[in-house]
Request: fold
Amino acid sequence: MKVAVLLSGGVDSSLALRLLREEGHELTAFYLKVWLEDELSYLGDCPWEEDLEFARSVCAATDVPLEIRSLQKAYWDRVVRYTIDELRAGRTPSPDIFCNQRIKFGAFFDEIDDSYERVASGHYARADRLAGRSRLRRGVDPVKDQSYFLSHLFPEQLERALFPIGHLTKQEVRESARRLHLPTQNRKDSQGICFLGKIKYRDFVRHHLGERDGDIVDRETGDLLGQHHGYWFHTLGQRQGLGLSHGPWYVSGKDTESNVVYVSHAERRIESAVRDYEVENVHWLGRAPARRKLQVKLRHGPRLLDAEVEFSSEGRGIVGLERPESGVAPGQFTVFYDGEECLGGAKISAGRPSGRGGTTAHVRKTRSTAP
Reply:
């Protein structure tokens, strides 16, 4: 089988390449250049040259040809612009979800047309067929499982996708890479948003949206606690980087018009927790589920939440969680599961607080707990 392998220069995609090589497939490796080094080079070192050298070493060791494709313009148009627009609107973006749908299995598919039967990557997920349809399943490693980020693939994209390491844990991937003497065997995992490289997320946001000072306000009491440099730097549920004493404090709301960030103390955080939330732009990997009781993920990670869901024909719906959750943020994605199978996802449009908490209309400046 003729397979295009997306090679990042990390251990996961390197092992995926090697496993497919051992199976006897006709392979070509592709390094996708998406870093924003030209525009943001002054903010930090971009590791794409180092990544590319590792990718070349792996291809040399496995005797697989390597091609480099620049998708920077597509990335800006399809992912980065969306990220900036969501931040400006006060929402929480999920760029890595669209990186997979619009770039790795989108723009890249357009580049290669039908020259390759399948496209493989080093994602921790599994794709198989059941009753004549392709389905996406969680990776066996619950911590590394990346089905959340693949939840918005189109059915035709999933049909062509291969995930050779989805049946392995991270520890098993490392052990296999050492046994096979892969050049990337000891390389650290990349962290953060895929297009930023070593550029700090806050620096990226500041470059595009600037700074504007505003108040940090106790959501329950209306007390002024401190100052921030722009609501777009903060996400619901955030705990770090607020600079407040007598915590812990969590971001529990934002007013984009007045540039106010609302926080709640951990002792009262349950008051701003959400049991029900509205979703829009519902996307299914296959057929819409017949069941109303599913599991959901609110973010990448091992945690699955029991929920009851109800959808309309207009691509909207209501998700009712079994227990209230804090940090449910407009703009972020909720992903639906039926056991091991990932069914698809939707964008959160609004939450419904389960307690008595709410955005305070007036700010009292008589007491401050800012350091």
About this structure: The chain has three domains: 2-122+164-179, 211-270, 272-353. Helices lie at 11-22, 37-40, 48-62, 72-88, 95-112, 155-160, 170-179, 201-209. Residues 95-112 form the longest helix (18 residues). The radius of gyration is 22 Å.
